[in-house]
Design brief:
This protein is an all-alpha fold. It has helices at 8-16, 20-34, 38-59, 67-91, 97-106, 113-130, 136-160, 166-177, 183-199, 203-213, 218-234, 242-252, 257-272, 274-302, 314-323, 325-337, 344-348, 371-374, 379-388, 396-405, 411-433, 438-460, 490-502, 506-517, 524-536, 540-553, 558-570, 574-587, 592-604, 608-622, 626-639, 642-653, 659-671, 675-688, 693-706, 708-711, 715-735.
């Protein structure tokens, strides 16, 4: 078994310290541990020689305008050697799909990208000729399957070849411009370039993605753009060589580049929201719908209901409104209209077909010539596939999921699905026709669906754990050095910041708002949002700082006052919290919630009498409840009014008592001299806290410091009380 070598971090540390000789020594030492690697030793030797010559001429004082580029090239080659060492050290025994595929490819050293591409061209020519034979269907099926097999082999070859040679890059470049090859195949190869780059960085791959972006084929261009930006975001700390920067600069001069990058960023943000949408469906909507099922079935028996005309059915609509499901469904509809991915949960169950065992198929553009469609004996499957090809609501992998699952669907349902998809497709086409910028909208839809395909692969592929998920990172293009100038103007920063904020990506939203604050005059709203981001991230002190700046600009905002009150309360800064709640109470004298929060803060601040007055006001406004009775128990205990404490405690314990409620009831009895009754309450407190004796002991210790009467008990009696409560709680457990 080889020792896996990963010296990338050490190499980056040495490069950052400009210790190039030490970095080369580290590579030499690592190469020696790997064994026979003469080409790696030779490469290191050439780099060392180049570096020494460059150093010699610099120390001689000889000017050289090309020196910075030469130095950058040496650093890039050092990084590449470190990657190659890591790759070679894992080649023998790494169990991942990447290395399994690579080991298989290495058994055929005569096969390379160029030879596979030549074979692909031959098969495609024969496929076209097969369309002229007498038995078109049989010949077409045979050569279609052969073509698909070669496409997958070439995908794997592009994915695992590292580094791409000059000939490899030339072959892939020719592939992208060859009009004789199918469009879907070129688009598939873009994904292979991306996956290979995510495994091991290679500047030739980046050049190919940049070239593909300039294609006249909109889908190829958009796929290359999204792939390029994902890689740039994930590998943002890996600098481009000067020559690659020049190639990238030529992209930035293209008229649509800036708009495309902004558009792609919005798709990445939407994709990151997929998990939250899925949780809303699985944790909120579906369970609530399941609870309603008996009542819905009852309504259906009394009067047939059509779910599609829910708004015309008062009984159905009323039931959904009362349960809160209607609001959740409306929110999901708004999310879908905004481009959110609400299909992930549904289609995650349909990714177990053998079709999805091939990594290439996750990125395969949907096309009706595919063998799973054209080779089907079911005419309705082919008809539905024709309709689905133009439906924009599904990404490619979901379309394949539908087709593959149709074998289990009755004919009548297939026809219904076909008619519904036709209607939806026509509706979407009509909406698109009204767009002022149809070209940009079209590219946005293409990007959205491709990003969904990528997201599904990294989250649903059976061996997803072997891949580094780019969506687990921020994918925040605003902070990528070579892209930041696109987001430099205030309008763009505001748009992106609001988009992050709306989708609850608060860390990224704050980064953008912070940049915006350096470019525009300060506003109360901007500081409010910066404060809210910090609050949601748990940085309460930072949140207070921004809320206070917002308050300076707009002291009348009750929203800001409320947030300051909440933050101070969370920081246990009771006096400051009470000050802000007092301002809220003055503006909303009949708000029971504000009065209650003010009372709780005053109670914690030691102002018991004022707290009691407010708690009685809460009772007057909304009636007696646990919300007011619990703190009144504490107030009465602090004031030593045991009769009053007992009255409120009994009302709380009679409803839904917590462990703390039973504990307070015990305190009241102990302080009243009813020791045996107090022990009984303590035992119930332990039982209510899932028999956690540790929590009980800690709570007793804290309450002894709060209620002075408890600490007046002699230590022996107190110990007997504690121990007896624990003993009795165990018998309660047996009863339960």
């Amino acid at each position: 078994m080889n020792h896996h070598i990963d010296i990338s971090k050490d190499i980056e540390r040495l490069i950052a310290q400009r210790r190039v000789n030490d970095a080369l020594d580290l590579i030499d030492n690592a190469t020696a541990t790997l064994g026979a690697s003469p080409e790696l030793r030779s490469a290191t030797s050439r780099l060392r020689e180049s570096y020494q010559f460059m150093t010699h001429y610099a120390l001689m004082g000889m000017p050289d305008p090309a020196r910075p580029e030469l130095y950058a090239g040496i650093l890039a080659d050092i990084r590449a050697l470190a990657d190659e060492l890591h790759r070679r050290s894992r080649l023998e025994d790494a169990p991942t799909l990447y290395f399994n595929t690579l080991r298989y490819q290495n058994t055929r050293p005569d096969i390379n990208i160029a030879s596979l591409l030549d074979e692909c061209r031959r098969v495609n020519r024969r496929l076209q000729m097969a369309m002229l034979t007498e038995d078109v269907e049989k010949a077409g099926r045979e050569f279609t399957i052969r073509a698909e097999d070669i496409e997958k082999r070439l995908f794997n070859q592009i994915w695992t070849t590292y580094p791409l040679s000059v000939d490899d890059a030339a072959a892939i470049g020719n592939l992208m411009t060859d009009i004789s090859l199918p469009r879907h195949f070129k688009q598939l190869c873009v994904a292979a370039l991306m996956l290979g780059q995510l495994e091991y960085p290679d500047e030739r791959r980046l050049r190919l993605l940049m070239d593909a972006y300039t294609s006249d084929d909109a889908e190829l261009s958009v796929r290359a753009l999204c792939s390029l930006l994902i890689v740039m975001s994930v590998q943002r700390d890996r600098p481009f060589s000067p020559s690659l920067v020049r190639r990238f600069d030529s992209l930035r001069e293209l008229p649509g580049w800036g708009a495309d990058v902004k558009m792609a960023l919005l798709q990445f943000i939407r994709a990151r929201d997929t998990e939250r949408i899925g949780r809303k469906l699985t944790d909120e909507v579906i369970p609530e719908m399941m609870k309603l099922q008996p009542e819905l079935e009852k309504l259906g028996r009394e009067k047939p209901l059509d779910p599609e005309s829910m708004e015309e059915n008062p009984e159905w609509a009323e039931l959904l409104d009362k349960s809160g499901v209607a609001d959740k469904l409306k929110e999901l509809q708004e999310i879908q209209e905004d481009g959110g991915d609400v299909m992930m949960v549904t289609f995650s169950k349909l990714k177990t077909f053998p079709f999805f065992n091939d990594i290439a198929n996750w990125f395969l553009p949907f096309h009706t010539a595919h063998s799973s469609i054209a080779g089907s004996n079911d005419a309705s499957v082919r008809m539905l596939a024709d309709v689905m090809e133009g439906v924009p609501m599904f990404c490619n992998s979901d379309k394949y999921s539908i087709i593959l699952s149709l074998a289990q669907v009755p004919e009548s349902q297939k026809q219904m699905m076909s008619s519904q998809l036709k209607a939806h497709s026509a509706q979407m086409a009509a909406m698109s026709f009204g767009d002022l910028d149809a070209s940009l909208k079209g590219r946005e839809r293409l990007a959205g669906k491709y990003v969904q395909d990528i997201y599904r692969f990294f989250r649903l592929f059976r061996r997803k754990g072997e891949f580094s998920d780019p969506f687990a990172t921020t994918l925040n293009l605003v902070t990528v050095p070579l892209l930041s100038d696109i987001f430099d103007d205030a309008d763009t920063l505001l748009l992106v910041g609001e988009f992050y904020f709306k989708h609850k990506h608060f860390a990224d939203a704050f980064d953008v708002f912070e940049r915006l604050a350096d470019r525009v005059p300060p506003t109360a709203q901007l500081y409010q949002k910066m404060g809210y981001c910090m609050q949601m991230l748990g940085a309460v002190d930072e949140a207070v700082k921004y809320y206070e700046q917002s308050e300076l600009l707009n002291s009348e905002s009750l929203w800001t006052v409320k947030r300051l009150a909440i933050c101070h309360r969370n920081s246990r800064n009771w006096k400051e919290a009470a000050r802000y709640y007092s301002r809220l109470a003055a503006a909303n004298p009949d708000d029971a919630g504000v009065a209650l929060n003010l009372a709780l803060c005053l109670l914690e601040a030691g102002q018991t009498a004022e707290a009691v007055q407010l708690l009685h006001k809460v009772e007057f406004l909304q009636g007696e409840s646990d919300r007011s009775s619990r703190p009144l128990v504490k107030c009465a205990l602090l004031e030593g009014d045991l009769d009053k404490a007992r009255r409120y405690s009994k009302s709380v314990v009679a409803r839904t008592p917590s462990a703390a409620d039973h504990l307070n009831a015990g305190h009241i009895e102990i302080l009243s001299g009813n020791l045996d009754e107090g022990v009984k309450c303590y035992a119930e407190a332990i039982a209510a806290d899932n028999f956690d004796v540790g929590n009980y002991v800690r709570a007793m210790k804290a309450d002894m410091e709060t209620y002075r009467g408890l600490s007046s008990l002699d230590p022996l009696t107190l110990g007997l009380i504690l121990d007896e409560a624990i003993r009795r709680s165990s018998s309660l457990g047996h009863k339960m």
